[in-house]
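User: Working on a comparison across species. This one is Pyrroline-5-carboxylate reductase from Halobellus litoreus. Can you predict its structure so I can line it up against the others?
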Amino acid sequence: MMDVSVIGCGNMGGALITGLSDAGGYRITAYDVDPDAFESIEAYADRTTTDLDDVRDSEVVVLAVKPDIVPLVLEDLDLRAEQTLVTIAAGVSTDVVASETDATVVRVMPNLAARTRNMAAAVAWEAPDENVERMLGDLGEFVVIDENLMDVATALNGSGPAFVFYLVGAMQKRAVEEGLDAEKARVLAAQTFKGAAETILRSEESIEDLIDAVCSPGGTTIEGMDVLWDSDVEQEVGDALSAARRRSAELAEEAEK
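Assistant: Here's the predicted structure for Pyrroline-5-carboxylate reductase from Halobellus litoreus:
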């Protein structure tokens, strides 16, 4: 059993706790200053606490708080060199965190799909950490990147689920307007995204080739794709990602002041 503590039981911290509990093999301590935060995760944690001393002996401590709260937690968090501190705060660099702790610091950008163990995560580290590798592998897929690309990853896989939710919602809404039941449209739209994503991950074909595989000459799909190709939707989606990346960079500048 690996001892893991999660500091901060909000949406992302709760998703990590839920996913690790489902994976099994973890003894999970959940910390938050607000006892009400435990309501949604109490069934998944082995222990809940409002005392920061209770997290200090864990092999891995996950810092899952908002960027502006990170310095406040680090002031009172005393970890040893043999421990690992995983930070998931957007815009807060490894150097900023490492200057306040003796623990090995690993920076990760996860997303909410950790809850269902379908997470996409980016990790930046000086050397691979076996415990973190195991955790990320149990929660989904991860890639290793240079830390100077973490703002892009924050926008892509960190903010990306919200962009996908928006697109699923748009497809559902129009299907309802065309006559489908709302719940059935939701299932079909969501499962379509899930299946398409799985197809990409399992295929070596390019995105363009996969689109062509669905499009028959004179068929329904190419009729719809013509609308997309003639629109600015690709630019708008890209602009949304760039806006999120810029905000991550701004948060980094604020954290270093």
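For your comparison, note: Strands lie at 2-7, 26-31, 47-49, 60-63, 84-87, 104-109, 119-124, 140-144.

User: Helpful, thanks.
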